[in-house]
Amino acid sequence: RQAVEKAESMQNVNQYQALAILAGRWVELDPKAALAEAQKAKTSKASAMGNALLANIYSSLAARDPASALSQAQQLPEGPKRDVAIQNVISQMAQDDPAGALALSQTMKNQAGRMSVFSIFNQWAGQDLTKATQAALQLPDQQQRSNAIQAVMNGLLQKDPTAALAWLNQVPAGKMRIQAEQSYVSVLAGT
Question: Would the pTM count as exceeding 0.85?
């Protein structure tokens, strides 16, 4: 706990990095204590470090045991803390099983499920572009489909800008293509 308090006193970028490292180590050494601290963490827009600690602890727990981490996250009371926890569990799960993470996110009727789509597809695009694209185009919800297409573009651009342009030319004309083009230009402009 003292190390976390020290990390919370650092500058923002250093705070987040330190909390991520500490959370991972804490989960290794004492998962129950880390989970208890995550459940006590103050979360709000004004408490970025509480959110970061919660996110990092649930991500670390999910890396070790996704089913248990999800179960623990689902036991939190409805609200932002629960959404942050579930979103980070799903995001961690997407590293090994993006299709499973997507299926889980689609069962969530809260903010966490909707917010997980970008993370899932950003990771999935780097693992299997064809399957990520197929799954993105099949999402029934227009907003999620749009987020998924943008995430695929973002993930691909980070990996291979030339391949991203080729992929962009395969996106069907219409609103999704326009959004993919905007994402392409936006990411390139930021590099």
Answer: no
